[in-house]
Amino acid sequence: MVSPSFPLGIDIGGSGVKGAPVDLETGEFVADRLRIETPQPATPEAVADVVARVAEEFASYTGDSPVGVTIPGIVRGGIMRSAANIDKSWIGIDVNALFSERLGRPVSVLNDADAAGIAELHYGAAKGAPGTVLLATLGTGIGTALLVDGVLVPNTEFGHLEIDGVDAETRASAAVRDREQLKWPEWAARLQTYFAHVEMLLSPDLIVVGGGVSKKAHKFLPLLDLQTPIIPATLRNAAGIVGAAWFAVQATQH
Asked: Which residue, 148, 201, 150, 142, is CA-closest to 167?
């Protein structure tokens, strides 16, 4: 029997709910990740049932350890303030209370890009990086996480900056590249416009690019001309789960 001492990270996405217990010494999963389809419609009660199923699956690894949950939206003071790629009925819900009550132990909820940023900071591409680090996840939209001297500035939405009169992610996300069948140099030109604008606003010391497309970073990152070093994320699909588990433990210590 494994000692029940590992925090559980659960990553709620538009298509799947994924979870695994995490060893915070290494940032690695202690058991194989479990993925369950996101219920449709993805209402709070329906998703809470799936989160409970994931938690039950790993009970022998986690015991009463804290649980961290990522969600595609803004979470302030435990309250859901926006709902991207998830049912609009989430808005206004106390998600910390919803999941804590359902699981019978402390649950801490945070934005999915923030969780990925935390994971890359502690275990991935941004580990040991000083100053201001921006993580940008290029996927259906553009998610962002801002970290200053190792501290998260939560709920940034730099993917929604208006550039040349349009919402940035509607021009430069990975989904747009697929939809418009853009060649790598064409897409890189759009990313150049976006990242140069963000660089001007934030003066970051490092930019980390995540999302599934980061696997092909060599095809587009070298085409960018920025003052800031820009590198691919390393944790990829594990980042949300790992960041959520780390966040959950920190939340119970404060």
From this structure: 142
102's tokens? 């359902």
How many CB atoms sit inside 10 A of residue 60's CB?
13
Rounded Cα–Cα distance for residues 51 and 54 (Å): 5
The DSSP secondary-structure symbol of 215 reads G
Provide the sign of the torsion angle of the four alpha carbons 32, 70, 53, 102, taken in this order.
positive
pTM: 0.94
Cα separation values, 7 from 50, 67, 94, 107, 236, Å: 18, 6, 21, 10, 20
Contact 200, 91 (CB under 8 A): no
pLDDT of 1 strictly over 70: no
Q: How far apart are CA 157 and CA 171, in angstroms?
A: 15
8 Å CB contact between 38 and 51: no
Unique residue bearing structure tokens 């049932």:
49
With CA atoms as reference, report the closest residue to 82 among 91, 95, 69, 70: 91
Buried b / exposed e along 213-230 (16+ C-beta atoms within 10 A): bbeebeebbeebeeebeb
Which letter does DSSP use for residue 106 in this model?
-
Element (H, E) at 110: strand 107-111
pLDDT tens per residue across span 123-170: 999 999 999 999 999 998 999 999 999 999 999 999 999 999 999 999
Bridge partners of 14, per DSSP, are none
